[in-house]
Amino acid sequence: MLATRLMRVIFGCYLGVATLLTCLQMGLEYQAANRKLQQDIAGLEKTFSPGLSDAMWRYSTEVISGILSGMREMPVVTGIEVRDEKDALVARIGRMSGEPSADSAATGLADFFDQPLTRSFPLVHVDGNGVAHPLGQWTVYSDRAVVFEQLKHTLIIVFINSMLKTVMLWLIFACVIRRLVGRPLAKIDAFVREIDADNLGARPLVLDADGNSELQTLAATLNKMVERLRATFAENAVLLEGMRDMNSTLITKVAERTRELERLAQTDLLTGLANRRKLDDVLERQIETARAQGAPLSVILGDVDRFKAINDRHGHKIGDSVLVAFAAILGADLRAQDTVGRWGGEEFMLICPQTDLDDALAIAESLRLRIETTPLPKVGCRTCSFGAATLRPGETADELVARADAALYESKHLGRNRVAASR
């Protein structure tokens, strides 16, 4: 019967939407609690890092153990460990990542969500002279099963509520559709099935007078629609052709706009150079190529010396113009295989494939001399510092950039306006 099929279709759609929304609600609740868990763990650094750093500086294992015991009492923490600057274990408490929990047999469905979550924080002591002394790091271990345990009762209530709504809706459909509109809908179904382009309006729809005034109105409306369909077929064909043309034009414009958005997503809006996202992609690809070909790959980081003083004295607008001019100098004689971009703030990166450390230092020194002798807008000649590093076997992109950044820091520390290398 049409009524039965209609009920199944409507109920199926509702069940699908209800299931989707229920799953979405459950997922959002889980994600919100998961974000809260990560925020709580990140907040531990501000709370406990000063005390742990002080205890590590004094190497007071009793104080360290006391702090770890206090943190272990927090629901979001499953374990903590402290290691010194040589990565030697100083203290640990609780369950680390990958170790089974003591009550793993009783956790049930929570084991399915038992995904480890680990955060490490540095331990640094700053003495009275302002010198930072790295002491090691401490690591917090948790897992997302904590989130599930907190949300388990809420998720069960949401699920039961959805199931009750679904059952009630099924009962309503069974009473209303089957008993009140089943037979009229069957006639309407038969009428609609007979409609095609060849027999439009051949036989009008007539319903028995059984008091279903709304369905009688529907039948009259269907008859009028059938009469009008014949006259509108030709018009619809013309409209369809026009829509196809419009769709083709729209697809072309969307493709053009997509290409433009992709270009903007990879470009620094101030300098017009590659942005950090683009630099990350290029560096990863060049590392793979360098390893496959056995060729050298170097990274140069450059930084405008005392740029903050320019902003403080002349304003950020002049500072921006200085960055634009600095970027133009970096890209003026760029080799075809090199990529230059803005790494962040006043710091720029040059990725040099097929370039060993000596060649990279020569490139950086050439740029340093050019910048030193080129007047910049409103501020005259300025200087810059560079740090260079060449890819080592098995080294990651982050490690390579970290060494180049350390070399840049060394050039700053040695007096600025120079080039330093990480060997």
TrEMBL record:
Residues 295-423 form the GGDEF domain. It comes from the Bacteria. PROSITE patterns: GGDEF (PS50887), HAMP (PS50885). Its EC number is 2.7.7.65. Keywords: Membrane, Transmembrane, Transmembrane helix. InterPro entries: Diguanylate_Cyclase, GGDEF_dom, HAMP_dom, Nucleotide_cyclase, Rev_trsase/Diguanyl_cyclase. SUPFAM superfamilies: HAMP domain-like, Nucleotide cyclase. Residues 179-234 form the HAMP domain. The chain crosses the membrane at residues 6-28, 154-173. It catalyses: 2 GTP = 3',3'-c-di-GMP + 2 diphosphate. Pfam families: GGDEF (PF00990). CDD domains: GGDEF, HAMP. This is diguanylate cyclase. It comes from Xaviernesmea rhizosphaerae. The lineage of its organism: Bacteria, Pseudomonadati, Pseudomonadota, Alphaproteobacteria, Hyphomicrobiales.
